[in-house]
Design a protein that fits this description.
outer membrane lipoprotein receptor (LolB), chain A, alpha+beta
């Protein structure tokens, strides 16, 4: 217990020092009203840049908060690697506290493999990344890691129902100097950190769900971007390992 009290005192002192020294002007003066055009411009540049990449891969470190019935938050973590080849190939691998899965899309079929259980499911899907992601979400209740960012219209998706947005300031994420942006929609807060320069890559994203008790957060940190990965058709195709058991996806609405 004394350790928690000590940590809390340190946190309070750090916050007080930041306010006194002017390091937290937004906390002192309140959130700006409306949407700052500069925040929109920076986000649009980042999403357009990624949409223009014919292929890329990104490694991420992710954390998800779950709120217990007592109100206490519990955090779970996983790492992911996503490889994309436009217009119709995607592979995503996730390993961590709650998940060990590989997500394959080869332009014709979607396969979800659980290597730990040696189980997989395959289904025919539409022929572009955007169509596949829509189908996976609406028909199978499956969401690819950071899938919204892969859409060619990612800006429109991220800005849906947004009522406020501003540039928080500068920050350094994984060694890259970034612009830190904050946006607010009716039920969700979004923070996003975008790398400065000719390659405005998204380096971090934090979603806060305000309509859930105690506002749990989901965060993604991009630890490595590769805009020239060595990808082949084999990178996105699934070959069942020996002894693997094939199962079916459970349709939406069934327990």
């Amino acid at each position: 217990m004394s350790g928690f009290r000590c940590f809390a005192r340190v946190a309070r002192r750090a916050a007080a020092l930041a306010l006194v020294s002017g390091l937290l002007p937004l906390a002192a003066h309140g959130q700006p009203a409306g949407i700052d055009p500069q925040a929109q411009k920076l986000l649009k540049a980042a999403t357009d840049f990624l949409a223009g990449q014919k292929q890329f891969s990104v490694d991420t470190r992710n954390s998800m908060e779950v709120v217990l019935t007592s109100g206490q938050k519990i955090q779970f973590n996983h790492a992911a690697r996503q490889s994309v080849q436009r217009p119709n190939k995607l592979r995503a691998e996730r390993t961590g506290d709650l998940v060990n899965q590989v997500f394959y899309y080869d332009g014709k079929s979607l396969t979800l493999s659980n290597p730990g259980d040696n189980v997989y499911a395959t289904v025919a899907v539409p022929g572009t990344i955007e169509e596949m992601l829509d189908y996976a979400r609406t028909s199978l209740d499956i969401v690819a890691p950071a899938g919204d960012l892969v859409y060619s219209n990612a800006y429109d998706i991220l800005m849906t129902d947004v009522t406020q947005g501003f540039v928080v300031g500068k920050a350094v994420i994984e060694g890259a100097r970034c612009d830190h942006l904050a946006f607010r929609a009716p039920h969700i807060d979004l923070q996003i950190w975008i790398q400065e320069g000719k390659e405005p890559l998204i380096r971090k994203l934090v979603l806060t769900t305000r309509d859930v008790v105690n506002a749990p957060q989901f965060s993604v940190v991009a630890t490595k971007w590769n805009l020239r990965p060595q990808l082949t058709d084999k990178s996105f195709s699934f070959a069942p390992p020996s002894g693997a058991k094939k199962t079916d996806f459970m349709p939406m609405g069934r327990n």
